[in-house]
Amino acid sequence: MSLILTLVSGLCWTIVYIEGIRLGFREKTYAMPLWALALNFFWEIFNSILGYAEVGFDAQVVINIVWAICDVFLVVTFFRYGYRYAKKYLSFKSFIFGSLLVFAVAAVVEYAFIMEFGLAHGRAYAAFLQNLLMSVLFIKMFIDRRGDEGQSLIIAVGKWIGTLAPTILFGLIGGGGLPGPNTFLLIVGLLCSLFDIVYILLAAGKLEIFARSQ
């Protein structure tokens, strides 16, 4: 069951990343919010390297490497197309500096989780908390763009299932060096599902949130 849930999560998130890359280049935009992208990028780099050093090439390490490679392309779309969303407020140099600062902060935060809690607990706590942040930021992106520019139902559903699988694994069953059940991870994972379902309804056009034009 642990391997099945790991593979489900790996497949769903890989689909999310590939769809985000496809939409980013096709629509000349970026598909993942900056803070979520930066945190994911360094989570996957650190856990690919440290996971391999600890256990070699197991399923999760291979998945992490695939995700890290996908993240490189998502980062490219952000720096290539992201400035058009900020040019009303920032110079190009300020945009680049601010974005690089976000990535630097993300690296420090991810490293701090591992140093404070150890690899098994640190990667799990960081992953679930940044996933909750991501769930909220995807909704904010939808609102800011007043629609699904750079987003799709594939991303919304893939993110939900890709997060629900590890919620069951780490929150109820236990795995990856963590005993189950884990109340903290279960609660954070369920909160992710709550916001992810809202995002699915938005992406599917089933939830009207914008004021009607007078």
From TrEMBL:
Q: Which Gene Ontology terms of cellular component type are present?
A: membrane
What are the record keywords, sorted? Membrane, Transmembrane, Transmembrane helix
Pfam families this protein is in?
Pyr4-TMTC
Membrane disposition:
Multi-pass membrane protein
Location relative to the cell: Membrane
Keyword flag Transmembrane: yes
Q: Do you know which InterPro entries this protein is assigned to?
A: PaxB-like
Q: Which GO terms describe its molecular function?
A: lyase activity
Query: Which residue ranges traverse the bilayer?
Result: 6-25, 32-53, 65-83, 95-113, 125-143, 155-178, 184-204
The protein's name: Uncharacterized protein
